[in-house]
Amino acid sequence: MMPIKDSSQTTIVEHSVDLHVDHKNFKTLSSEEARSHLSMLASMLRAMSGVIVQHLPNDGGNNPAFLRYIKKLSGTLDAILLKHRLEASKPNSDIRLSCTIDPTDSGFPVFVRDFKFLVTDKEQTIRELQQLPKDEKLVDDALFMLFRGSFPRDVILQKLARKYYETLEVLTMPEPLRIYPPVHVKAEQQIHYCTLSFERLDDHHNIPRFYTLYLKIPGKTYPNHETWEEALKQAILGGLSTVVNLELRYLARKIEDIEGVQLEYLERFDIGPFYSAYTENSPTVQALIESPQDYIMMFNKSTVLRVGEEERVGFREWLKGWRSGDEFTGNFSPVIGSPQYILMPHRLIQKVHNLNISLKDQTKMFGITSTGEMYA
Predict the structure, then answer these.
(1) The predicted structure's pLDDT at residue 97
(2) 156-187: string of b/e by CB count within 10 Å (b at 16+)?
(3) Using CA atoms, how far apart are residues 293 and 323, in angstroms rounded to an integer?
(4) pLDDT, position 364
(5) I need a labelling partner for 13 at 20 to 30 A (CA). Which of 95, 269, 274, 323 fits?
(6) How far is CA 97 from CA 71, 76, 275, in A?
């Protein structure tokens, strides 16, 4: 087995058909397991954000929308953790819905289930908070019961419920697909440079993904915002695929076909998988993860670049170019993959080298010490 080696090289992503089919792939965790797993996952998302800002400016660190999305994900996982703490504290907690994760190459709570529960609870936030006592009364009630020698179990449950619904009240949750408004960056020589990002909870693989388009809009087209923005939305909706290695080039072509829109660069960030003692791990991962405190967080970026362009051919195409200012059609590179970034406790990096373990080709490891220090 070849030893794992850090690499900062990008590589051409090979085409492959994912044979991951739709089936009920989930694992139910106990209350303690859920608390451990969700806490580590939320913590690793925050650590991942720090790694990207400090060490990977070109692979996400210079994309503020992506960094905000990671923060949104970690905040949502904190809310799910609160929900399961609340459910576990209620009477008959053994028959209530438990935390369910996708244990195979995901590690995230099942999007169509646990994230949906949060959406449902958020819709009831105002009503639930109106029915719960205020914090001042909860403190008084708890002190009253303690002075009388009784444990304030119900008061503590109400306090936890209030904290949960107050968290939901201000929480912005990830959506199955949300297309952000375009951001105008600059204008030069009658060309407007814009970015457009969108988030996606890929329920086929149960992995969060984040995309950013870097666009050039000719001056003739740019004022017609409603037209080209709607065309972009439709291209995105029609361009997403469950075959992730084929998706970006197909999406790039759909966007380039929009009259008056030129795609310069398309990037997709894949967040995960996350492995712990509670996921179903391959023998290689299992050799590293031996205790409930062990984890491995993976993430990477895939890109498609405009590598050339051709002048439009034919009268009809010429007319489109004259009308929109978009006189060329772009050619795009194969999908280019960043190294597979891996975040894990520093002690596991030492273990990787000691055991000559190979996780993936072209990897870059980041270690976190017990004091929170980060090593590249």
Answers:
(1) 62
(2) eebbbbbebbbbbeeeebbeeeebeebeeeee
(3) 61
(4) 92
(5) 274
(6) 26, 18, 23
Smallest CA-to-CA distance from 343 within 302, 372, 303 is with 372
pLDDT at position 317 is 65
Q: What is the pLDDT of residue 16?
A: 47
Distance CA 196, CA 222 (A): 14
Distances from the Cα of 145 to the Cα of 86, 140, 152, 154, angstroms? 21, 9, 6, 10
Cα 343 from chain centroid? 15
Which pLDDT value is given to residue 18? 45
DSSP per-residue codes, 32-94: HHHHHHHHHHHHHHHHHHHHHHHH-GGGTTT-HHHHHHHHHHHHHHHHHHHHHHHHHHSTTGG
CA–CA distances in Å: residue 124 to residues 79, 121, 129, 154: 15, 5, 9, 21
φ, ψ for residue 200, nearest 5 deg: -150, 130
The parts of the chain modelled with pLDDT lower than 70 are 1-24, 92-97, 242, 314-324
Q: How far apart are CA 308 and CA 328, in angstroms?
A: 10
Long-range contact set of residues 72-76: C-beta below 8 Å, sequence gap at least 24: 72/172, 72/173, 72/174, 73/45, 73/174, 73/208, 73/271, 74/42, 74/43, 74/45, 74/46, 74/49, 75/171, 75/172, 76/115, 76/118, 76/171, 76/173, 76/174
Where are the chain's structural domains? 27-170, 177-375
The whole-angstrom separation of Cα 70 and Cα 15 is 28
